[in-house]
Design brief:
The protein is α+β, with helices and mostly antiparallel strands. Helix content is 23%, strand content 27%. It has an eight-stranded mixed beta sheet, sandwiched between helices. Strand 8 and strand 9 form a beta hairpin. The two termini are 48 Å apart.
Amino acid sequence: MPPSRTMLLVGEGNFSFSASMSQISPDTESSITATCLQQQDEALRHEGAASNVQIIKDTGGTVLFGVDCTKLGECASLQGRVFDRVVFNFPHRGRKSGVKKNRELLKNFFLSCVQVLAEDGEVHVSLCNGQGGTPADQPRREWHNSWQVAAMAAEAHLILSDIHPFESEKYQSYKCTGYRSQDKGFHVAKALLHVFTRSPPYVSAQTLKVEEAVEGEKIQYNIPAELSDYIFRGFLCSGSVHPVRLAQDFLLKGLAEKWSVAMTTESIPFLIKAKRLQTCCRDIDSSHCYWIHPLQKDLDSDIRTPADKEKDQLTLSDTQGRTDTPDTLVARVCACSLDEDAEGESSVYILRPSLLPQMEELLTQKEKLINNAGSQREAGWNSKSVEVNKEEEPCGIRNGVTSLLFGISGLVFRSVPVNIWALPVFHELLLRGVFPSDCEPIKLLGQRLKKLLAPHGVSLITAQGGLRLIAQPMGLVGRVFSSKASDDISNVSITFSLNLDLLAVLLFSLPDWRLLWSHDPRLLKQFGPRPSPGTSFHPFSLFPEHFSFDISFWTGPTWEEKKFRAVVREASHGTVEQVKLVDTFSHPDLSQTSYCYRLIYHSHTHALSHTQALQFHKHLESLLSSRLQVTIR
């Protein structure tokens, strides 16, 4: 944030800090408003207070007496004003008050100060070493014996964005007072300054109504509500600086140094027919798919031409009949309603769990491209390298086969258990090439991937028919596998699938994959300069708290955990990072089973307080009762 122009200081004692700020701030446009709880006569009894007040006024500042920092919105002198920075140094309830009372003071202060804080403003709170309860305190107190400053700020939708030492030597005339309501100072050695900023608001899940052309047929359907925030975000668009795009660019550039790489520019639907999965992706568990029932089918629709498909492939419509194309990357939404059962394997459509079926279709359509690499652009492919690398001559062009990698990337969907590294949606990069069998293409590709990714913690493990890319703590981040290239046994088709989201987490040291989906502008601002892989991400939410709640309920004989976790993701706004089955009990006389789950709430993207987490949990109970007809215990 640029230098503050308006600062509000609360809880001042002798006004020495405000006076010091007035003297060291050369910006004449800055203004300081210093306040204290005491009335004027009482406040001026503090040693040096009168002279400090005069300094503040002489430098253009304002001094207010009788201001309660927990009721700033009620202060008549502050009505209609907002501040770029609100400062509270060494807050204390006075006299011999315990940690609980001081936590309450912090909580009420944060709830109050957001009423006078600018949208991009900061709140600065200085605490003695150990009071804050964060890992920055050394030594760190036990959690229950600290002031839990980050958790108290979260109650006001503020996130802890920075911590640094309190530079008492910078303010030479500052004399800390107020310890136990006396003129004695606090112990400021190793004191810490905590900087808080506003959290983006939580956005309720919506059901997106989408129309797509699937194999020449127009299909309208609803995207499940728990997936609504992942759709049409445009991370892979041209010119994007999102870390997922940067990860893809890094990989393609590295591969293009050895082989030609051509990425498709065609639009492809989210929806595929279930039978395509059975023929192309036998390793994907159908129970982990999102099964979709179309809202309506246009049975009279003709087969679309490539031009029609480019225009009609993805169209969003709202209830008023207005339409948006995906170029706007904005989806109009209809009210969240899931009265009909959108699950069930009787459906003939699924949200694509892999790009492999669509890769197969595109390559079939572009058979000419495989035989003649020169027609790439005419066929809708964008080449990342116009020549085959001469150093790879043995695996270059031979017997009409080129070492040209064809690529496609986009969102894929998996209805997986709720786990910290289980992604219900991620961006897959799928590449395929046909190589002579005797040049050991898997070995060559593995060596290249190892050179690119090993420095970032990725290991390559030989598996049946290919390679598995493994990283800790997330596990599998990609695969390389082979298959026959038509009937020619002298050639082999090599495909590799990479999870761009998890690779972006590794390349830029993100603490949580959910950060990739944050709407906070600070995310893209940090990646605006296009940092190279290995540049660590600087979190804008430090030390977010974990909250654990249990939920128990009775179910009927048709209980489906898949539906349960969908409701968990929706009700919690994605803040539940783990769901663990704690206990089950089947009633011996009734056709009912009791389940007890433990949910861990945690967010690196939003302020998550105990109050907010509890609200999400109560909302979950309500949705489970209404949608899944369970009985909460």
